[in-house]
Amino acid sequence: MPNLRSSGKIVGASVSVRKLAKQYKVPQPISLRKLIEALGVRGSPEIQFQFGTHNLSFGNFSDGVPDWGTFKETFGGSEVYHEAFDPIFGHPILTLAFFELYKYYLKGTANGGLATGFCTSLASLVADSFWTGRADTYSITKASVHKQLTAVHGKLLSRESLLYFHDQGVEGLARVERSCREIETIFLRGCTRKSAPLLFFIPAGGILSGDYFDKLGKSHCVMPYRFAYPPGHPGPRLAPDGRTTVGDLDNVELYVWDCNHPESPNCKLVFKNNGGRLDYQYFAASSTALFSSQDGITLGMMTNGNYMLADHDMPFSGTLGFTNFILDFLLSPADLQITDAKGLKTGNFDGKIYAEIPGSLPCYLVPKAYLLPSDAALERRIAGTGRGRYTYNSITPDGGSVVLQGLTTAAGQVDVLSMNPDQTELRFTPAVAKKFNMTVARRVGDQVRAMVISGIGGDRNAEFRFNTSTELGFANLVNTGGNRKVGIQTMVLDKQGKLTQKPRVTSVNMSANSELTMEMLDWNLLDNSVPVVRKH
């Protein structure tokens, strides 16, 4: 049955059918069908969005407040391990490694993070408030929804969003017309809370050009609310099957609510037919275009139902099109360069973004983060771009993670990491002498098993090697460098993230060119064999 609110003409929290019938001059005897027809529930090219009522009074901001609570809200409690993980251990085990990226992105540029604004969460809040009948949106304060907006914006890091916007970007500028007609179709068929459109400005052509992350500066999300047609235009018209529209879009304007100008009714896209291709210019409360499709920015569209209301998975979990990904990312002054056995590249090589490896793609909005195929042996080169320390993270879809922490770097230094698909064999060669810590974790049945290995290191002539089994049944370390005091901390947690035993720490002195082997006899009791060190 049609929804009475889908015309956009009912905006209060509650309505009286008798008052509506009188307002829209429904003849007696009153019937619901007559009222639906009078309301135009079948849709129109505009919704009755009123400034001062349905818009937010505050604008975009760049200071998020991510924490474990927002993380669980973004991805759902079933996806996220227990809160005790973070404060007790401080070790990036499984989802906690991703949690560090989540925090780094969502704390925003005002706090030294990556997010330049929170436009998507703001646009979705305005859309959702309108279609649930709120008439007090204008009185909402930033403080009252700051955490909510942070959590909603975090969905841009989800598996669904990363793949969805990548696929739309790959369509290039042809996506401009498709997104425009999708929005027009939704309005004409009758908009609802779930189908309400959100419009995205995204780099065209996929994440393959060297200036992709520069173009991200123009990435933005707005909420469409009205089409305006030029004089003499016959008006919008659905195709016979109702799946799209067929009218001319030349000189058509699409008005949007823009959080960068929260009280302006003069933000709009103007479409032009350019030799058979639909282009646009975007005017943000100005008579001068802010940017256009000629700048390599296409249009993406996602409904409020698919973005704000739907469940979203972390990028390395869930199943989407039978494809599973490894998520690799750096928190550092360095670039990640990945190659496969054929020499195909993914990552940032000399300022150009590549995604040649089949099944790989860089993460939308997040520099230095990549989704990689889970069935390929890959070499990672971590190329320093400045002086500092980096953390390398790799998370697999079957519940495994490898994290290298505390590594120094400088411009021109290249550290090389080779790893097989299941992360049981690892070889690491730093550009210069470096010490670091490594955390390896596995999800085995209802357990999470982890080893934190400290004091290890290497240099360009002395690689570090690590081997284990898929269930962390043993640890084999090869030290081809100098003398080292190595610590191995083991811990096991249940599915709620609670310790089942007190973590156990084993310290071992390793001489130059030596090999250490330690077997885990019983993970339930954290019982391990005495480490054996021998010459390598």
The structural domain count equals 3
C-alpha-based Rg, rounded: 27 Å
Question: Which word captures the global form?
Answer: elongated
Structural class, from secondary structure content?
alpha+beta
What report would you give on this structure?
Helices cover 19% and strands 33% of the residues. With 536 residues, it is of the alpha+beta class. It folds into three domains: 4-39, no CATH class; 68-309, no CATH class; 325-535, no CATH class. Strands 9, 10, 11, 14, 17, 18, 21, 22, 25, 26 and 27 form an eleven-stranded antiparallel sheet that branches. Strands 12-13-8-15-16-19-20-23-24 form a nine-stranded antiparallel sheet, covered by helices on one side. A seven-stranded antiparallel sheet has the order 6-5-4-3-2-1-7, with helices on both faces.
Question: How do you describe this structure in short?
Answer:
This protein is α+β, with helices and mostly antiparallel strands. It has helices at 17-23, 32-39, 68-75, 85-89, 95-106, 119-131, 142-153, 159-170, 174-189, 212-215, 304-309, and strands spanning 197-203, 220-228, 253-257, 267-274, 277-284, 291-292, 297-303, 325-331, 334-339, 345-349, 352-355, 361-362, 369-373, 378-384, 388-395, 400-409, 414-419, 425-429, 434-444, 447-458, 464-467, 474-479, 484-493, 504-510, 514-522, 527-528, 532-535. The strands form 3 sheets. Strands 9, 10, 11, 14, 17, 18, 21, 22, 25, 26 and 27 form an 11-stranded antiparallel beta sheet that branches.
Helices, strands, pairings?
Elements: H1 17-23, H2 32-39, H3 68-75, H4 85-89, H5 95-106, H6 119-131, H7 142-153, H8 159-170, H9 174-189, E1 197-203, H10 212-215, E2 220-228, E3 253-257, E4 267-274, E5 277-284, E6 291-292, E7 297-303, H11 304-309, E8 325-331, E9 334-339, E10 345-349, E11 352-355, E12 361-362, E13 369-373, E14 378-384, E15 388-395, E16 400-409, E17 414-419, E18 425-429, E19 434-444, E20 447-458, E21 464-467, E22 474-479, E23 484-493, E24 504-510, E25 514-522, E26 527-528, E27 532-535
Antiparallel strand pairs: 1-2, 1-7, 2-3, 3-4, 4-5, 5-6, 8-13, 8-15, 9-10, 9-14, 10-11, 12-13, 14-17, 15-16, 16-19, 17-18, 18-21, 19-20, 20-23, 21-22, 22-25, 23-24, 25-26, 25-27
Helix pairs in contact: 3-7, 6-7
